[in-house]
Known about the structure:
Distance between the termini of chain A: 12 Å
Number of strands of chain A: 0
Oligomer: heterodimer
Number of helices of chain B: 11
Structural class of chain B: alpha/beta
Distance between the termini of chain B: 7 Å
Number of strands of chain B: 17
Largest sheet of chain B: 8 strands, mixed
Shape of chain B: globular
Amino acid sequence: MFKLIGSVLIILSSSSLGYMIGMRYSMRVREIKLLKISLQMLETEIAYSNTPLPEALKIVCKKSKHPINIIFNKAAANLGKKDCVSVGDAFCKSLDDAKGMYSLIDEDIDILRSFGHSLGSSDVDGQIKSFSLIIKELDAQEIKAEEMRKKNENMYKNLGFLAGVAITILLI
Amino acid sequence: MYSQQKLNIDKVIQEEILECIAPNIKDIILKIPKQHISQLEEIRIRINKPLMICRGCQDEMVSPNGDMVANIKDAYIVTKGDCDGTLHRLSNYSIYAIEEELRNGYITLRGGHRVGIVGKGVIEGGKLKTLKNISGFNIRIAREVLGSADNVVKYIVKSKTSIYNTIIISPPQCGKTTILRDIVRQISNGQGKYIPKGLKVGLVDERSEIAGSYQGEAQNDVGIRTDVLDGCLKSSGIIMLIRSMSPKVVATDEVGNRLDCEAIYEAANAGVNIVTTIHGDGLEDVLKRPFINEVLKDGVFERIIVLSNRYGPGTIEQIIDGLTLEDIVNIPFR
Lengths: 172, 334
């Protein structure tokens, strides 16, 4: 009886571990999509309403979904402190602060960092250009992330279950 | 005369100005002794040049410890980072939102303070598109001196319901805008026995210096019957106000070009009184200028007030009857 309960527990925990690892891939795809939507909202605020950045970030934060809203919320808060030397610093700091809350990988974050440094620091035309650049870069990242998801998501999910089964068989 | 100055200038500088300056410079200015800060007129930030403040119409270099120094070696040298930081803060981290202001070369801060900006102009289609590589700032601390026109108003009042067309002639930094602002306030609110009821005033504030409008709200007291047309060309603004707001008095700052003078004739013909100012060292100097000399010769302005710095900013040097060109007051007072 104990053996049976033990084996079920092992299989359950090992498959959920595999499931969680697999989920990270689809989470990343979802987050990149959300990020693109949020950035497009920010672009509208900047290019068409000329809203000052701290306010624009707050508006976008309210309209964005978790966990992307955390980045914008923290960036707006960092700007408000007035001791962040530039917008780039405030934006990068918010990315660091929110680390662990999102499934984006370093490659995605680096794109966001370099975008942060151009945010707010040019005229409207310049801003529109840097927004279209980051959207293009994120499109490419999304395609890559989607490929990785297809390749790895099911593999990790199955691997988790199978590893659980293998451990159980070995132990029995 | 300046006893009614209500502002606590330390607080004003801390809350309204230092928030907009790069942290390094902000720290230095906070170290400057209080008695100096209270006389502060301008803060000059120029890239790779010493940090300077102007007080009492003289500039002084500031050391990293906030002391006034005579030797350039002891002064704090402004870096590119300071300039960039100041620009970011001035624009509330949104350069794109101040494009229009950059084109004009200045930003108005909360409180009506003006920051002049220079840099490299970007030209597109023969017109200035924006400024880049910003290299210098001149932060002018606006001082609203309530009561600075107390001694002037009685000379420009014609009857209880009208005033003389008045022009104030003054060199820079002698308090021309300050006095104009207070004249506007007193005429608009009504002032004791001279204008008991107050008159409707239309104020064309082309450079946001008089009312100091920040996001549409006047930051300085320009009176309860004053309509402010902010950021609008004087020449077209005067006509717009006359047509739309039925003012009794139109006030504006620093007239001079042909279009301004045409608008002055138009206002005078429409039966509206004018109060305005012009840069210059006395009446003779202004009479040499084109356009405005004709306006003066035609006797449009019935009162000419000449300011100087003799006893500090806001000294009334002369008050002249514009029709006879005879002195009404010729002993300078403040």
